[in-house]
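Dear Dr. H.,

I hope your travels went smoothly. While you were away I took the liberty of generating a structure for the chain from your last submission, since the lab meeting agenda had it listed for discussion. I wanted you to have the full record in hand beforehand rather than looking at slides cold. The sequence, exactly as received, is reproduced here:
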Amino acid sequence: MKLLLSIILVLMLAVGLGIVAQTDPGYVLLSRGQWSIEMTLLVFLALLSLGFLVVYFLLRFLTYAWGIQGRARAWRRERHRIQARDALLAGLVQMEEGEWRSAESALLQHAEHSDTPVLNYLAAAHAAQRIGAHERRDEYLQLARDSMPQAEIAIGITQAKFQLEHQQLDQALTTLNNLSQSAPRHTYVLRLLMKLALARGDWWRLLKLLPDLRKRKVIPVQEADALEINTHTALLEMATQAQDDDAVHTVWAQVPRRLQSHPRLVFQYARYQAGRERSGEAETMLYRTLRREWSDDLVSLYGQIEGADTTEQLARAEDWLHTHVDNPVLLLALGRLCMRHRLWGKARTYLGGSLSLAARSETYQTLGSLHEQLGEQTAALDYYRRGLQLMLDGAQPAVGR
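The corresponding predicted structure, in token form, is as follows:
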């Protein structure tokens, strides 16, 4: 439409000039020294217009020629960008198909021309991880860092996950220590530190992490509670196995007051105290805990230690029969306590009742010991044999802690 209007305008202008030229063609004289040129005004205007057009198109041509190189570069960049995009898509599809080696090759093919090279290198690192090429994986992660330094946290998390997945615990520790310095409150970094501590059995590190795990809500409250119990239990078990009183007391002091009555922790601590000839303290701790919360493990241990007042200890255990009359573990504990007092008849009754409720190897062993002390060797050997057979069969019911 614009071209048509331009043509009409030029024609109208030409017609107008023609009419003017017929009435008065005008006169133009150009003189320079001895040289002079004469022409009509119409011819002069025509030559002037022609010259303008020649100069205009010459400049357009020069401008076009000057921009050819830049347009060629832009075309090549666009072509490389399209190739990089296609290679990224192909690599991701191959990864979904489990073709890790092909995916790695495709992702790297045009990565340097990609709009998002960090994605190419991260995906290539993932592919290398799947085929166990750890050195190449780390090279790709470094290329990802170089291509996008501001993504250091995300790339570091990815590297730590890969290292944990392949049990590269020392390398994961170094990576996560660096991350914890740059992003100490990052929830996923805390989660990975937790996983690493569990994998390494680093319970002291886990104990230090617990406040942040709770505060940042890295794990649910119930999971955090269970983890706290497991951590203190593991630390206490390590200290008791070392038979180091100072270490045991240090660990116990680290246990929050609200957890010092937890059955699992009380079991560990009381068993250690009893083994160090502090049975009176252990019996008191067990009794106080059992008044608040029942535990078969604690009852079983209660029947195996000798308190400061064994008569009172037996009376306390017999009081529990009012609410736990059909508990085989309690009956076994009572049988042991009665044997300590040489109450053979009551001991036999309690042990027989326990055996009728649950066949346990330790109950058979205790009955064997009872009959042996009574001089009934044949019965004792029979109970020992049956207890040993039950233990070998693995049929003994577990006691929950």
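Two observations you may find useful: The chain has a mean pLDDT of 87. DSSP finds 19 helices and two strands in the chain.

With kind regards,
E. W.
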